[in-house]
Amino acid sequence: MAQKPHSSGSVAPGDTTQRVGITSIEARGVDVEELREKLIDAIGAEFTTYYYYSNLRMHLAGNEDYKEITEDARLEDRAHFELVLPRVYELGGALPNDIRDFADRAACPDAEVPTPMSDDGGFDTSGMEVEDVLEVLLEAERCAIRTWSEVCDMTRDADPRTYDMASRILQEEIEHEAWFVELLSMERDGEINPAGHFVRGEPGEAPYSTNRRFNDSA
Amino acid sequence: MANYTVEVEVPPDCDVEQAGQTVTIEVDEDDYVLDAARKAGVWLPADCQQGWCTTCAAALLDGEVDQSDSRRYYDVDAEAGLILPCTGKPRSDLRIRACQHERMLDHRAAHDLPPGSSKR
């Protein structure tokens, strides 16, 4: 019996210049270039948020519970960056060589400490309110929800791998929003507005999105 | 509260159900144009909805828009007739052309402004 050739579709056997992982989603209507650019923007926002949350967390002195929750969100945003980064390369993209370009194209605004700079170049925290920090955190999460919802829309029924990543991240971003709605409601308005969640099992657990851990705490 | 009529030109190459049509919507003075359009069933492109990423960029053909809520909007954008409907409130009746993200990126790049400067 004659040996059957490998099933090859439109990609010749052994051809390493193309990826069926790309052509198969293109055939289902995905604009791969548009998607990978969107993903770079989206993980740019996760990366910058990780940075900015580091600073926000440092300025929640005296509110240890807020610091811990911000730490969960911070580490989980880094997990989101890690989860999707390989997908950018699978789709033929790459990180910008210059981190400034990466930050400039981030899909979401810089989550800066909401206080002016002092004359000596440090933060002027004399008038800073905790509720202002919580509002920055909340709006950053809301931006992330919108971004990953858009990625879900772009990939639904056409690119299950990216869709799965985006939907996992979206699950956590929605939880982060709920955390900060709860905290801001109480801090600013004295209202109980439950998130419905309790603490993560470990800092930055990222129960839906964890991909590759750097160390035991991330 | 004032209410304005906004005509939205949707270019034929825009990935929106109403591509090739001009759609008329009503927008309150305190509402953003993008949100009003989406609520009216015109699912214009958008991402951050904080006036930052420029995905929603549109051309302002006629009228006046308040962009004071936008996180990253420059005077040169207004001079070029480009707006961000996600955080743009009408201050008069408007006519806009949607789906101008690529034009906005080119424009920002030409002025060495983000995000165009890092994408072109």
Provide the helix percentage of chain A.
55-70%
How far from one another are the termini of chain A? 55 Å
Q: Please, how many domains of chain B?
A: 1
* Topology of chain A as a string of helices (H) and strands (E): HHHHHH
Computed over alpha carbons, the radius of gyration of chain B is 13 Å
Q: What would you note in describing this structure?
A:
The complex is a heterodimer of chains A (218) and B (120). With 218 residues, chain A is mainly α. Helix content of chain A is 56%, strand content 0%. Chain A contains six helices and no strands. Chain A has helices at 20-26, 32-58, 64-90, 99-104, 130-155, 160-189. In chain A, helix 2 runs antiparallel to helix 3 and helix 2 (32-58) runs antiparallel to helix 5. Chain A is elongated, with a radius of gyration of 21 Å. Chain A starts with 19 loop residues before the first helix and ends in a 29-residue tail after the last helix. Chain B has a single domain (3-110), classed as Beta-grasp domain (Ubiquitin-like (UB roll)). Chain B has helices spanning 33-39, 75-79, 101-110, and strands at residues 3-9, 22-28, 58-62, 65-66, 82-83, 89-90, 94-97. The radius of gyration of chain B is 13 Å and the shape is globular. Classes of the chains: A mainly alpha (218), B alpha+beta (120).
In short:
Chain A contains six helices and no strands. Chain A has 218 residues and is mainly alpha-helical.
Topology:
The complex is a heterodimer of chains A (218) and B (120).
Chain A (H helix, E strand, L loop, with lengths): L19 H7 L5 H27 L5 H27 L8 H6 L25 H26 L4 H30 L29
Chain B lengths: L2 E7 L12 E7 L4 H7 L18 E5 L2 E2 L8 H5 L2 E2 L5 E2 L3 E4 L3 H10 L10
Task: Label this structure with key terms.
heterodimer; A: 218 residues; mainly alpha; 6 helices; B: 120 residues; alpha+beta; Ubiquitin-like (UB roll); 18% helix; globular
